[in-house]
Design a protein that fits this description.
The structure holds two protein chains of two kinds. Chain A is of the alpha/beta class. Chain A contains ten helices and twelve strands. In chain A, the strands form three sheets. In chain A, strands 6-9-10-3-11-12 form a six-stranded mixed beta sheet, with helices on both faces. In chain A, strand 4 and strand 5 form a beta hairpin. The longest helix of chain A has 15 residues. Chain A starts with a strand and ends with a helix. By secondary structure, chain B is of the alpha/beta class. Chain B contains nine helices and 21 strands. In chain B, strands 1, 4, 5, 7, 8, 10, 12, 14, 16, 18 and 20 form an eleven-stranded mixed beta sheet that branches. Chain B has a ten-stranded mixed beta sheet with strand order 3-2-6-9-11-13-15-17-19-21. Chain B is globular, with a radius of gyration of 21 Å. The N and C termini of chain B lie far apart (51 Å). The chains are: A alpha/beta, B alpha/beta. Chains A and B meet through helix 2, strand 7 and helix 3 of A and helix 7 and helix 8 of B.
């Protein structure tokens, strides 16, 4: 589904990613762990298409297509989804409107008929129910006045509505207490299917107790330093990231 | 009239034509005196230049480049296919002026409550000249330095009167529509309007200015609004003038004890527009809402210059203006708040925010506070900025194309100021106008969050 080959990325002339290689297949969940400043969020933004990054080498291939040439909205319509570390507040735009515009924009892109208001609301209610969320969150403006936990749940709701093939969760656990973490993780788990994949980016192991990865990668100093199974996360929890600082030095 | 000052007027008489119907024997002597005084003052003041502090950011160049003539009866008969209305589905009482001439066959006032007058100023002058003489010029004492007010007084050739007597509540809004354009060459007209809401009365007034076609015209309007003790006036103004039009408005408002003047002004078109609003709160418990939004593109220039005087203790005012500027559009916001000596417990709030969609757009914002009392609360702020890159990416990352995402963020930006509007029907109608202004129509107004 996603193949990253020798990816080099710079921001304002400073190289952040220094040759990333990663292959994610359908049905897999990959965790990318690493210390602050290791380039985790840069990787997430590169996949989703945020401005301000310069790809100086390598390729990001998604379903056989070079992803870096596409606009962010086209990537989304082709099934790429980024759950934001800091979801943005959009006053005056109801969550429902936002979701409806998003799904219909994607449907237009993919040559499908738009959902009318009734079909959309029916689908949306089903999704919120499935995720155990209240309808109240739908009527409010996007993320405005939402608690940290509500914002992250809203990201999961968007993911549920848009049904991406490849979801990238950028530090979805940051700022969550254990109960909120569990709710968010349950939501993500309920969306796991054999034909989609997820990349879970996190600093801490605790999220991986709830979203159990197939593969764990350690990103430090712009490179993947080690890859392994879920047990690697436990090792990191015990030993910390200091060992990679030494390895890189 | 100082000829050198008025190169832009071609073939203009010294003074405006008689307002009163010929059957009433022409204008009364006091009106002629007022006109003469206006002409003298305008001659003394001259056309405002940017050397004047209050005109520093608004050049009158577009005016000087055009030569206007007075409107004729024929201009007033310009075709209007469909009378524009802010609330087209409601059968509102209304007056329709086309190029400054009343069009009785398009107007309708039969559903107004007993004693309420909505009529042309000429009709009011014929019906009750004493009433007009008591109100015309009654609220402009503090505006003696405003050249265009004096010009209007000298030249006034049309306008309306909206009079709600004591204790009467007018349930539906009334609408006054000014249609400009479709004339043979540039024309100028000078509406003079009187709005009097007597003690304990309540009303809502919509003033809707619409341009038809292209080609310049000049509207120099003056409006005096009296909101007496315990009265309420909700005032909505929509300025959708055509891209070559010049719209210069002077508004003087007096607010009485426990009275409310709540206004919202939406400007979405006009080559050059200036709205100079001066509100005096003269009774304790008086409240003023002076809010607005402007959306300008091309080379349009929009100036909102306001002044609120808190003359007595225990008065409140809220003023929020938000603007969106694209291309090379320019806007000016000058907001003065004056808290008079002894006007203790004044609660004033002012906010000006502008969103610049292009690097060629410009906003000049100048808040001014003059406070002569010591126990007051006055907050003010002015910001300007561009679309938030993080928000734009957030929307696009969900599959929303960039053009649509930008529209959503513009509407999001304006949502805050629309919340100032008490009547949800009017708020929705204004949002609809905003949506139509945007590069592509994307939303139904009712899907948006309303307070």
């Amino acid at each position: 589904m996603l193949e990253i080959h020798d990816l080099h990325v710079s921001v304002d002339g400073t190289e952040i990613l220094k040759g990333i290689n990663l292959v994610v297949n359908a049905g897999e969940v990959h965790a990318i762990m690493g210390p602050n400043g290791s380039g985790k969020s840069t990787l997430a933004h590169i996949i989703a298409g945020r401005d301000g990054y310069e790809v100086t080498g390598g390729r990001v291939v998604y379903k056989g297509e070079d992803l870096t040439a596409l606009e962010p909205e086209d990537r989304a319509a082709k099934g790429v989804f980024l759950a934001f570390q800091y979801p943005v507040e959009i006053p005056g735009v109801a969550n429902t409107t936002f979701l409806k515009e998003a799904i219909n924009a994607q449907r237009r892109f993919n040559g499908k008929d738009e959902l009318d208001a009734m079909a959309f609301m029916k689908m949306l209610r089903a999704k919120t129910k499935e995720l155990g969320m209240s309808d109240d969150m739908l009527k409010r403006a996007v993320n405005v006045g939402f608690s940290g936990g509500e914002k992250k749940r809203n990201e999961v709701l968007q993911m549920a509505v848009l049904e991406p093939s490849l979801a990238v969760l950028d530090e979805t656990d940051s700022g969550l207490d254990i109960d909120a973490l569990k709710i968010v993780a349950d939501g993500v788990n309920s969306l796991r299917r054999p034909d989609n994949a997820a990349i879970v980016i996190t600093h801490y192991q605790r999220l991986l107790d709830h979203i159990v990865p197939d593969h764990v990668h350690v990103l430090a100093h712009g490179r993947i330093q080690r890859s392994g199974g879920k047990e690697l996360a436990l090792e990191l929890e015990a030993k910390g990231y200091a060992q990679f600082a030494e390895e890189a030095a | 009239m100082a000829a050198n000052e008025l190169a832009f007027f071609e073939q203009f008489p010294r003074l405006g034509p008689a307002l009163a119907l010929p059957s009433a024997g022409g204008d009364p002597a006091w009106l002629a005196t007022q006109r003469e005084h206006g002409l003298t003052r305008f001659g003394a003041l001259g056309l405002p230049t940017r050397r004047l502090e209050s005109w520093r950011y608004t050049p009158l160049k577009p005016l000087e480049d055009t030569r206007y003539r007075p409107v004729t009866a024929e201009d007033g008969m310009a075709p209007v296919d469909l009378v524009p209305s802010l609330l087209p589905n409601d059968y509102l009482p209304r007056l329709v002026f086309v190029n400054g001439r009343l069009r009785p066959e398009l107007s309708r006032t039969e559903r107004l409550p007993e004693g309420v007058h909505l009529e042309s100023i000429g009709a009011a002058l014929a019906r009750d000249p004493d009433w007009v003489s008591r109100h015309l010029g009654a609220l402009t004492a503090d505006s003696d330095d405003k050249a265009f007010l004096h010009l209007n007084t000298a030249m006034m050739d049309c306008g309306f009167v909206f009079h709600v007597p004591r204790g009467v509540v007018v349930e539906t809004p009334v609408e006054v529509v000014f249609v400009g354009g479709l004339t043979d060459g540039p024309v100028a007209y000078f509406p003079r309007n009187l709005v009097v809401i007597e003690e304990g009365a309540q009303a809502a007034l919509i003033k809707y200015h619409v341009g038809q076609g292209v080609g310049p015209y000049l509207a120099t309007a003056a409006t005096e609004i009296q909101v007496a003790d315990a009265a309420i006036l909700r005032h909505t103004k929509v300025q959708a003038e055509s891209i070559d039009a010049t719209h210069l408005a002077t508004v003087n408002v007096r607010v009485g004890r426990d009275a409310t003047y709540d206004s919202f002004s939406l400007a979405i078109g006009g080559r050059l527009s200036r709205s100079e609003v001066s509100v005096r709160i003269e009774g304790e418990g008086g409240h003023v809402g002076l809010n607005g939004a402007y959306l300008m593109r091309g080379r349009e220039h929009c100036d909102n210059t306001t002044r609120i005087d808190h003359c007595v203790p225990h008065t409140t005012a809220r003023e929020v203006f938000k603007g969106v500027l694209d291309d090379e559009a320019r806007a000016v916001f000058q907001g003065k708040i004056v808290v008079h000596k002894d006007a203790q417990k004044t609660d004033g709030f002012q906010l000006s925010k502008a969103l610049l969609l292009s690097t060629g757009a410009e906003i000049d914002a100048k808040p001014e506070l003059e406070i002569y009392a010591d126990d007051v609360k006055c907050a003010h702020g002015a910001t300007m900025g561009q679309l938030d890159a993080a928000a734009l990416f957030y929307l696009r990352s969900r599959g929303i194309p960039e053009a649509l995402a930008r529209n959503m963020l513009v509407q999001s930006f304006l949502a805050e100021v629309l919340e100032e509007i008490k009547d949800p029907t009017i708020a929705a109608a204004l949002l609809n106008k905003i949506v139509h202004w945007l590069p592509a129509q994307c939303f139904l107004a009712d899907e948006w969050v309303t307070p």
